[in-house]
Amino acid sequence: MEKRILECVPNFSEGRDMEIIRQITDEIEKCAGVKLLDVDPGKATNRTVVTFVGDPDSVVEAAFLSVRKASELIDMSKHSGEHPRMGATDVCPLVPVSGITMEETVVYARKLAERIGNELGISVYCYENAAFREERRNLASCRSGEYEGLVKKLTDPLWKPDFGPTKLNVRSGATAVGARDFLVAFNVNLNTTSVRRANAIAYDVREKGRPKREGDSLTGKIVKDDKGEPVMVPGSLKSVKAIGWYIEEYGIAQISMNLTNITVTPVHLAFDEVCRKADARGVRVTGSELVGLIPLKSLLDAGKYFLSKQQRSAGVPDEELIRIAVRSLGLNDIREFRPDERIIDYVMAGNVRKGRLISMNLTDFANETASESPAPGGGSVSAYLGALGASLGTMVANLSAHKRGWDDRWEEFSSWAERGIQVQKRLLQLVDEDTEAFNMILEAYSLPKKTEADKKKREEAVEAATKHAINVPFTVMETAFSAYDLIAEMIEKGNPSSITDAAVGALALRAAIRGAFMNVMINSRDLKDKDFVNIIIEKGRHIDLESERKEAELLIKLNKSFQ
Q1: Choosing from 162, 301, 434, 544, which is the catalytic residue?
Q2: How many CB atoms lie within 10 A of CB 275?
Q3: CB under 8 Å to 209, separation ≥6 — which residues?
Q4: CATH 3.30.990.10 spans which residues of the chain?
Q5: DSSP characters for 206-248?
Q6: CATH code for residues 5-179
Q7: Which helix H or strand E contains 98, and what residues bound it?
Q8: Is the pLDDT assigned to residue 354 strictly greater than 60?
């Protein structure tokens, strides 16, 4: 069953006093079942964006405790900063990450909002998917007038809070609690200090756009509709909110964007569009800044996008795609971008990534294999052999994509390289999964067997762990076999200077598949579910025989090329 993970990204109206920030985040960290991922303070905005994840109930509890601590430590009557705000905890969105639907997230958000209103005496507006009324879906509408306009706003029946008092909490202001999709806060740096020019560019790109004016001039009268509302000229980017501001800390103006749906407008497209609109206004983009965390896929997609613009193969390791993305987006422009600290997938994995076999260098992996420990063993080595085979095929595809005189074929070979790198990545994962499967068997055998119930539980655990230990090498077989198409294509159509590299890849795939099949067979010996054993052995034998045939076929092709 998929683990239920909820993310919370509260924004607190304090970005200068690190002691206050620490006390707030301490409240989060003391909650079991929650992991603090990121704390991003900004001096100019006087605002800190905090990101944490965990199981839904624990996240909601941590969110409440942090809001309570912020209400004790932050006095909004004395607050100033560049960012729009209306409360000590300005916004507190919940974001479904895995194993939880948006509908369920809405329920959690509303319960949190009710608790903040009732127990802390803070006026709360529910926004985005948690909104009770359509006009409150947009955060900017909920925050209109900011802190200074709350006295008037709270007396307006149309803006009665969803929870909490209708009288201003002078110290804490108001809070917006929402349920939303994953949002990327992304700032683009400009070579100007002009907020007016930054805002003009922001209006060019943001979905809302700018008010239409008579004669389409900059100074003409604003055109209004039948209801007296300004008629808007939409900007060029969907699912994007943007404003321009000046950051004294950096001495530059920025376009501050919220990308509310990165499947509609990903980071790289937003960046390029701002570059185009800025250039049209005589302004240059110097780089960009991510606030909070970003999904790994976003940076991988950005890396592929920028490589594609150069007509270069995107079938390269994740680390290289990330480097390309960071350089192309200028993410190091004003401060160093550290992938392990800024990519949500890496931060959530934490030290687990560092302890994996695939994180070892070649010598350490060989030494670990040679040690007296039974793992890593033949299963992990077979998976690694398969990864090397896929890597060689991918290398030939990349060399072919960049071969002089073959410029019109770069997309063809890039497509093969991308397929190869996916096979390589999966097989590298299986290097560790095989060792983990072995450890699961050991853990199952270590369970107590004092009572009949204990024995039954232990027996079931051993059976389940053994099936898993069979499925892992079988997956190695299937995955490695899928790379033969790549190898065949590279031997037949790839860079002629590298066909022997592709052939070595075929040999590695053959060894990986035969070695994995041996592990399938030996792990099947003691399994009681003989139907499962018979089916998987039959499938495995078929793959093994087909692999033998493929290898022979490819070597014949190779030999013909030498004649």
Answers
A1: 434
A2: 17
A3: 203, 232, 233, 234, 235
A4: 5-179
A5: STT-EE-BGGG-SSSPBPB-TTSPBPEE--S-TTEEEEEEEET
A6: 3.30.990.10
A7: strand 89-98
A8: no
Cβ proximity of 526 and 465 under 8 Å: no
User: Is 17 one of the catalytic residues?
Assistant: no
Distance separating alpha carbons of residues 421 and 317, to the nearest angstrom: 7
**Stretch(es) of the chain classified as CATH 1.20.120.680:** 355-562
d(CA 505, CA 499): 10
**Residues 508, 423: Cα–Cα separation, whole Å:** 14
The CATH architecture annotation of domain 184-320 reads 2-Layer Sandwich (3.30)
Q: End-to-end alpha-carbon separation of the chain, Å? A: 56
Q: What is the pLDDT of residues 302-345, one digit of tens each?
A: 999 999 999 999 999 999 999 999 999 999 999 999 998 888 87
Q: Which of 83, 204, 301, 544 is catalytic?
A: 83
Could you tell me which residues are beta bridge partners of residue 197? none
| Residue 300 burial by Cβ neighbours in a 10 Å radius (0-12, 13-18, 19+) | middle
Q: Does the domain spanning 355-562 belong to CATH 1.10.101.10?
A: no
Q: Is 79 a catalytic residue?
A: no
| Mean pLDDT of all residues in 161-181 | 95
Model pLDDT, residue 236: 97
Query: 78 and 139 in contact (C-beta within 8 Å)?
Result: no
Mean pLDDT, to the nearest integer, of 513-523? 96
Distance CA 499, CA 491 (A): 5
